[in-house]
Amino acid sequence: MSQARGRYDFCIGLVLAMSSSIFIGGSFILKKKGLLRLARKGSMRAGQGGHAYLKEWLWWAGLLSMGAGEVANFAAYAFAPATLVTPLGALSVLVSAILSSFFLNEKLNLHGKIGCLLSILGSTVMVIHAPQEEEVETLDEMSNKLRDPGFVVFATVVVIVSLILIVVVGPRHGQTNILVYITICSVIGALSVSCVKGLGIAIKELFAGKPVLKRPLSWILLLSLTVCVSTQINYLNRALDIFNTSIVTPIYYVIFTTSVLTCSAILFKEWQHMAADDIIGTFSGFLTIIVGIFLLHAFKDVNFTLANLPVSLRKDDRAANGSLLSTYDCFNHDEESSTCVSEIQSTESLSARRNGSLSAF
């Protein structure tokens, strides 16, 4: 009976995590559209410390969408382990990429489609190998976990690193280095996930009739979550305003997920109850997702489709044979002569450059 109940909770957590990714992925687009509208109006940008986005309804729509996603994500942590819920955030990257092609005029080429497919496959592998039993089920157990020396050291390091990035590094390099603001969001997000997990357990006990509201731990977790989420929203807005959405989203996903998996390994120790093949499968799925996200965005500006593939292969074959087009072939066909001459000149120019000839310039 307990095993069936655990399976039921696992499925609920899975559905909530997937719906959360859809809402969050859409929120990136709505927020970016709002920030772009403000930039066209000449308002002070969020990346420069401005808060004019608070008057933009599109930004608020994005915030509400993200809020709905976070609520679903919040509930998912109460039913499923963080090792499963967090990596499924990759689906938000797919949603963001697809919607960006429609609303932000960002193209999804062949590399992007392969990246989407790999991300879905990686997520499926992680779902199959994720732990289906959660160790921490009561607030008393959560309290003991939070007092664990390993987690205390981890939380202290996260707070110190975040303060250094906010106070020292951010004002100097935040406008030029994409990793500054995203790292702040990610490492603080690891602590917020821990708070969410604890509050999820508290809510389950509250529905069970236990006096959760009288326990200081519940309010400490709520206060900590509020501070963490506020910090995340602030610095994520800055990153989105300064840098391209297609760059911010995948980097944020990778760093955030890595931080959460590290925090989960230290706090909940879910990995101790997993078989070796499940651990390998989980890491393999996660790496597959990372490769998919890389393909999705690294070659985003390359105009490459299936229709271009045979042409590319033919050009590679001809280049390997030492001759792209012969002079006879070029001038034997009048309608293609201009194209052929252009290709010959391009080839000669490329060869001259490779040989270090200044005449190519």
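(the above was protein one; protein two follows)
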Amino acid sequence: MATIQVDKTPLEQPKHQQFALLPKIINGGIAGVIGVTCVFPLDLVKTRLQNQQVGPNGERMYKSMFDCFRKTYAAEGYFGMYRGSGVNILLITPEKAIKLTANDYFRHKLTTKDGKLPISSQMVAGGLAGAFQIVVTTPMELLKIQMQDAGRVAAAAKLAGKTVEKVSATQLASQLVKEKGIFGLYKGIGATGLRDVTFSVIYFPLFATLNDLGPRRKDGSGEAVFWCSFLAGLAAGSTAALAVNPFDVVKTRLQAIKKADGEKEFKGISDCITKTLKHEGPTAFFKGGLCRMIVIAPLFGIAQTVYYLGVAEGLLGVEKK
């Protein structure tokens, strides 16, 4: 009777895809620098509109986004539109790298064994990414806002017959650390977290959903074509930006250290919300909303395109995963 030989060699298990950290960090940094350079003047206008408070007789320095842009350019010139860009470009690399890399990492970890990632897990991954980024975002935004709003405060002081001393980002950072320690750079961290976590919970799942709807590349990678990633970034970024604009207004006002004469001080998130509602109404929470959408849409469109094209992988000579 013939015996049947059984092959006892263990079946080869499918290899889990490795999470390539370095290329993702570099891609995030490149994307952040390119995006900020392109949209920074609009971000400056957004900051000034959000910090502007309506006077007792309804007076205001800027009537609209275009009025703010025109007056800022007339008073401070082309380079005035980039005031505060140095600290932003310096810190946007780690900020974007943390945000995009953390989201990918948590998506990687939360993906089920059958390769599925439920929408709830996508939201958790996005929220965690937003929570991690505030370590860098808070001091970056704090310093950037002082630089961006300095022109508005100086113009208001000039109208009142006063002058405001110019302070660089380095001097301001040193002063805050000297007076309050390292935590002085984290003024408004609660509001920053509220904005960034909520933004990421909305943005990343929406981007992934929209990106999956588009055509795939012909190289067999399964990735979306670049224009699809760009448009998905535009749509998801603008939607999430408008949704969290009230939190951004609160954060911006809390982080503004120097106020124009007659402008109110805020003790915290609830105090800022209460006073803003009382004196300016609910529409105040959407100040700079259009401007923020115009800023965030291309910023994340560019970021996701660079990220998904795998620029860093090309520079490093490694395979995109």
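Reviewer note on protein two: The longest helix spans residues 119-159.
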